[in-house]
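Quick one:
INPUT:
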């Protein structure tokens, strides 16, 4: 009677990869009014008045502030729309994106 040997199962790969997340970063400038930055943060990123004010003042003091993280497409779309909102008013307001570590 042949002996039955069982091979150890190799490690199973996870079936779904978690999508890589991207930070949206607000950059300070000397011209965009603080209240306008707050309005854009509330409108595009759905932050409360208080959250938007904290993000704006952090960028104002430190030069940059992470607004939120999203999938790549959403981060890029929101950063572009928010930057364009400033451009439409003649402000140099700038949002960029970068991959999370
Ligand atoms: N520094 C601007 C001012 O003093 C306000 C501001 C804050 C602009 C944050 C951009 O990302 C910014 N009017």
């Amino acid at each position: 009677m042949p002996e039955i040997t069982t091979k150890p199962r190799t490690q199973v790969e996870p079936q779904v990869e978690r999508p890589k997340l991207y930070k949206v970063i607000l950059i300070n400038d000397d011209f965009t009014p603080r209240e306008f930055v707050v309005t854009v943060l509330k409108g595009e990123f759905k932050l409360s008045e208080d959250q938007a004010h904290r993000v704006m003042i952090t960028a104002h003091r430190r030069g940059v502030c992470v607004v939120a993280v999203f999938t790549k497409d959403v981060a890029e779309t929101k950063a572009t729309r928010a930057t364009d909102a400033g451009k439409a008013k003649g402000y140099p307001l700038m949002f960029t994106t970068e991959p999370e570590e």
